[in-house]
Amino acid sequence: MKKILLVSALLLLISTTAFAQEAVTDVTEAPDPSTFRWEPVAENLTNPLYLTTAEDGTDRMFVLEQAGRVWIVEDGQKLDTPFLDISDLSSQEVLNNYSERGLLGLAFHPDFAENGEFFVHYSDTNGDTVLARYVVSADDANVADASSAEVLFTHAQPYGNHNGGQIAFGPDGYLYIGLGDGGSQGDPENRAQDPEILLGKILRIDVNGEAPYAIPEDNPANTTNPEVAPEIWAMGLRNPWRFSFDRSTGDLYIADVGQNQWEEVNFQAADATGVANYGWRPYEADQPYSGETPPADMVLPVAEYDHSKGCSISGGYVYRGEALPQLQGVYIFGDWCSGRVWASYRDASDSWKTIEMMETGRTISSFGEDATGELYLLDYYGGVLLKLVPAT
User: Fold this and answer.
1) From CA 193, how far away is CA 186, in angstroms rounded?
2) Sheet containing strand 352-359, strands side by side
3) What's the pLDDT tens digit per position in 238-270?
4) Quick check: 336 and 365 in contact, CB under 8 A?
5) 167 with 130: CB under 8 angstroms?
């Protein structure tokens, strides 16, 4: 079985690399914001936080609600029965007031069509982080087997904010997990810069290895820095609220929520090695924050905006659909507070450019992709799922 999984992961990596050679990476002309609009697709969602697909040959989209439910949206309709309901396990604080706890992340195994496995990242009723594996029901592909839960990972959260929440499989077949710095303000214990602490990091684990999970052999702790906790892939993050992989190149984009003044987008090339350090708390975006000496290997963001434009970034995706060719290779992201949407890209000289695309009037909690790479936006308070489409 391990040999089969290894071969599958290798084939996936080879196919991704081959595709990457044809992918648009340098954008020759800035996109025209007036040529796009957001079209409502589905409504009646409650505090939606994320959208993803199972990549199983169906057109189903899976929308995560913060209070603990995952719904299937198909042909513009939310199905009557939730795909998964873990509201008895996850924090319900959001039902009484705004909260950063609850059901925060969802990722389907690359071999979901064969093994039916998927993973969720949630805050339990004590507020601590849980990563768990589930499988789909044997007799209904639209309903998960709630009794199949297998907890792979837990971590105490010292405060109620900055829990992170994103989980996603990379093109290498490993599961990446985003954790915030533990909360409060200013990362009071400097956890994001502590290589032995998992908070303020992106983790990378092998869910196909020994139970509960294995450490990839090429993780930084095994190759470049044995003093780093073995799960850590990247560090120096305050609260990575949505990261994503470019489905064509494998490059990683990380949106990190700022403290007082700045929101940022970080970039990691698909062939990167070592522990990328994105600078928090010595730096907030490209500005000094704590007065501490920044790490010598600090990686500065490729895009940022100050709080005159918003207050909390929501990371998005590099567009790889077919309906909007002008956006090929462009990374789309937005802001929770202002509803603004930006586009970042590399021009013909390989320099990063960022333009403001539009003001949506939405509370942007997350973006999502469908199976074909078309782009969606979730309006948290409006309870609406919207799709990016041509303006005419």
Assistant:
1) 12
2) 313-318, 331-335, 340-346, 352-359
3) 999 999 999 999 999 999 999 999 999 999 999
4) yes
5) no
